[in-house]
């Protein structure tokens, strides 16, 4: 199949396929003397595998490392995709149920506790870990993961609730100026929380993390669940915090 035919069948752009070829992620079976890329059935099977990884939030660099490994097993990978997608579907089902209840609550037909309003949100698994490693190195991530891993289930739940509490507080402040005293106090809590996790973020890394909340739409989508515009607000407030606390 030619590149345009593959793009039409799959529903992705020709430019994406060209990019995958350029970075060595998906190299066509053959390129004609005229420069036409020709894709085989094996190419299409690998493309399906790549898109499963992309759907689950894996960055292209990590996908290339995984599928290029001598130990890569396609059947094992498919089984893993299925397991992860089922977990994702279950979480989405819980969130949909929360939306349904919230609609009824808004109409006055039922009562919801604050805890019930956030059923389905799950930040215990970090799908962006590889990107964090690439940006700030392994040490901060490994220390944070080790600390969480040593906690009991109850401690991990309490940690998640504390994180959500900080997000909710910042969401309630997002219409204030990011440099306001209240906002900066909330950002101080967020900085202290990250440090308590063993992350040991420098102020520059903390500022960069805030920028990623906006640059990466997946971060934006998750954070803005607590309030529209929260990711951009936190980005601005975290930058101000870092600049103000940078040693002179």
Give the topology, please.
Layout: H1 3-10, H2 14-22, E1 30-31, E2 37-38, H3 41-55, H4 60-67, H5 74-106, H6 129-136, H7 138-149, H8 153-173, H9 181-196, H10 203-215, H11 217-223, H12 230-245
Antiparallel strand pairs: 1-2
Organism: Paenibacillus allorhizosphaerae
Protein name: HTH-type transcriptional activator mta
Domain HTH merR-type: 1-69
Tell me briefly what this model is:
By secondary structure, the protein is mainly α.
Structural category is mainly alpha
CATH structural fold name of the largest domain: Globin-like
Highest CATH level, the class of the largest domain:
Mainly Alpha
Chain-averaged pLDDT: 83
- Uncertain regions spanning at least 5 consecutive residues: none
Order of helices and strands: HHEEHHHHHHHHHH
Q: Per DSSP, what share of the residues sits in E-state strands of 2 or more residues?
A: under 5%
User: Structurally, how many domains make up the residues?
Assistant: 3
Structure commentary:
This protein has twelve helices and two strands; from the N terminus they run ααββαααααααααα. The protein has three domains: 3-67, Multidrug-efflux Transporter Regulator, Chain: A, Domain 2 (Orthogonal Bundle), CATH 1.10.1660; 73-115, no CATH class; 123-245, Orthogonal Bundle (Globin-like), CATH 1.10.490.50. Strands 1-2 form a two-stranded antiparallel sheet. The model has no long low-confidence stretch (mean pLDDT 83). The chain has 248 residues and is an all-alpha fold.
């Amino acid at each position: 199949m030619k590149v345009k035919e593959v793009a039409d069948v799959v529903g992705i752009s020709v430019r994406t396929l060209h990019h995958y070829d350029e970075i060595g992620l998906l190299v066509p079976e053959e390129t004609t003397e005229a420069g036409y890329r020709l894709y085989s059935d094996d190419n299409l099977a690998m493309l399906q595998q790549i898109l499963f990884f992309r759907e689950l939030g894996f960055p292209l660099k990590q996908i290339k490392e995984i599928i290029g490994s001598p130990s890569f097993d396609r059947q094992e990978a498919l089984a893993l995709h299925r397991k992860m997608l089922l977990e994702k579907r279950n979480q989405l089902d819980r969130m949909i149920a929360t939306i349904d209840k919230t609609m009824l609550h808004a109409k006055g037909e039922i009562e919801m506790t604050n805890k019930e309003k956030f059923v389905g949100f799950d930040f215990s698994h970090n799908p962006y870990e590889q990107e964090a490693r690439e940006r700030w190195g392994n040490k901060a991530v490994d220390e944070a993961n080790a600390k969480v891993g040593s906690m009991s289930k109850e401690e991990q739940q309490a940690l998640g609730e504390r994180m959500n509490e900080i997000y909710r507080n910042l969401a309630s402040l997002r219409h204030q100026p990011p440099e306001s005293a209240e906002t900066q106090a909330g950002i101080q809590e967020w900085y202290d929380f990250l440090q308590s996790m063993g992350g040991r973020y420098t102020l520059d890394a903390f500022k960069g993390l805030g920028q990623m909340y906006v640059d990466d739409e997946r971060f934006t989508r998750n954070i803005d669940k607590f309030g529209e515009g929260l990711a951009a607000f936190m980005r601005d407030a975290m930058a101000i915090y870092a600049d103000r606390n940078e040693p002179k």
